[in-house]
Each structure stands twice: as C-alpha cells, then as structure tokens.
Design brief:
9 helices, alpha+beta, two-stranded antiparallel ribbon, Multidrug-efflux Transporter 1 Regulator Bmrr, Chain A, Arc Repressor Mutant, subunit A, 297 residues
C-alpha cells in the first residue's frame, strides 16, 4: 500500500476505533461508522475486517470482554454485575463467552493476577486509563496482495440466487450446474456475484448469485426453477486481484483485497463485487485461480 494511502486509511480506521471504544455500551450503527470513516457504507465492514482481522461487532465484543477481565481482577463488582457491564443480558451467555476465550469460568478468573488481553491481529486492546492503547495500526495483516485497474466488458449471466453465508454458495453452484447440464445449455465460465457486505450483514441474510456466463441472446428455458434468473455485470472500470489456491481461502482473500489491496490504488470503490473462477478446478487446489473484482465509482 502506498505510504500516503496507508496513512489516510489508518487515520480513518483509528477514528472508527475511537468511536467504538467510546461507545462500548451503545455501539454506533454501520451508517455512523461509515460516515466518520468516509468509507462507503456498502464496503465499510469488509474494509474494517480486512484491515483489523475482525468485524466491528467482533472488535467491540472482544474489547468488552477484555474490560470484563480487568473488572474481575480490579473491582468489587460481582460476576453478574461484570456480565451486565460486558453487555450480556444473562450470566449464562457471559460465562459461555468468557470460557470460550479464557477456558475457565469468570469466578475462577477473578483471583488471578495477569493480563486481560485477548489475542487479536490488530494488537489493539482495552486500557483502563484510555479505553484502548493506541499503537501503530498494521493494515491487513497477512500475505500481501497486488491489485490493478482494468476495464471490463458487459457480462450476461444465467444466475441462481443464494441466500446465506457466502462460503456456502458452492451448494447453489451444484444445483445450478446440475440444471444447466441436464438441459444441455451452452454456458461459459462461472462467476459469483455478491450483493451485501459480510462485515456488517448477518450471515443468514447475505445475498449472492451463483452464475454462468451466457450469450446476449440467451433466454430462460420454460419451466425453469424460480431461483433461476438472468442478470448482468455492467461494463466499466474495476479493481481486480488474483487469489491462487483453494476456494476455502476466498474469505481471507476478500478481506485482504478489500482491506488493503483495493484501497491502495486510491480509487473510490463502487457496489459491484464479483469473482471469476479461472481454468479447470479438478486439479491441485493449490493452483486454482480466482479473480476478485470491485467496481470503481
């Protein structure tokens, strides 16, 4: 990422972090966070998650749990009161979340001395004096990704709607492929089109399309499944980067793409995001190539 772009993104994200920490007990909305950061509301969650390694919601929950750990060791509040301070409506839910991190009950943690940080890629933690300890923010920790600008043509797609976690779209692709091959339809390469920001949209509400490239004059067969439809990806300027490897790594690839690689070009991102699966996926998964795209405004 270019140095000036990196400084700009760090400053924007640090403003959001300060807002989140100052509002732990009344978390800001996505619209508020997007506005203070200057990022598109559509992409805010992906940018934040890609840069910090956790979603805004996960960040707030972790900081609240760190604060709870501090309070257990340094206050006279009972465990139920600490649970409420951490934002949990029931002691059972708090204890379950606490055990998932520290592998012990809150009551067992109380007598211990030590630190209350929970491991996080960003290295940002709760601080009793300031709310959090400022530190140089490392954007998009992990393997670097190189993005470029490209002009893409209009694409016509035969698509089947998928609603649910993006990583489960393979199930919809299987249904679409079975229908297409059963009908003997002429299709091109496969694409997935994404319509929501997984950083802020509940997983069960995420909308996407499993799709195949078709010709401009393609018509839907009679009696087709209801989820099947025709759609388009508009022509225009896009930012693109390649992911080489198994499809299991696409979630992380999108985080790095949206958190660092695409912003590094310094162009405002639009709301069209899709991926194209290149070549034959029957070989070694380590060699599979998926091209990621986001439109430019």
């Amino acid at each position: 990422m270019r140095q000036d772009t990196a400084r700009d993104y760090r400053a924007r994200l640090e403003a959001v972090i300060e807002l989140l920490v100052s509002r732990l007990d009344a978390p800001p909305s996505v619209a508020e966070m997007a506005e203070i950061s200057g990022f598109s509301r559509f992409h805010f969650g992906r940018i934040f998650g890609g840069a910090l390694g956790e979603s805004p919601g996960d960040f707030s929950r972790r900081i609240r749990l760190e604060r709870a750990g501090y309070l257990l060791q340094n206050s006279k509040l009972n465990v139920s009161e600490v649970s409420l301070e951490a934002g949990y409506e029931s002691l059972e839910a708090f204890s379950r979340a606490f055990r998932s991190v520290w592998k012990m009950n809150p009551s067992d943690y109380r007598p211990r001395d030590g630190r209350w940080e929970i491991q996080a890629a960003s290295g940002i933690h709760w601080d009793p004096e300031t709310g959090f300890r400022p530190r140089p923010l490392v954007l998009a920790p992990g393997k670097p990704m190189q993005a470029t600008l490209t002009h893409e043509p209009l694409r016509h797609l035969l698509a089947m709607r998928h609603v649910g976690p993006y990583h489960e779209i393979a199930q919809t692709f299987e249904k679409l492929a079975a229908y297409v091959h059963g009908q003997g339809l002429a299709i091109g390469e496969s694409l997935a089109v994404y319509y929501d920001d997984p950083g802020v949209t509940p997983a069960h509400e995420l909308r996407s399309d499993a799709s195949f490239l078709v010709g401009e004059d393609f018509e839907l067969p009679a009696g087709h499944p209801g989820a099947l439809h025709l759609t388009q990806i508009p022509a225009g300027e896009y930012i693109t980067a390649a992911h080489i490897g198994s499809y299991d790594g696409l979630g992380d690839a999108w985080s790095r793409f949206m958190g660092e690689a695409a912003p590094a070009l310094g162009r405002p991102m639009g709301q069209v995001t899709f991926e194209i699966y290149r070549g034959d996926c029957s070989g070694d998964p380590a060699t599979w190539r998926t091209d990621l795209y986001v439109s430019v405004v």
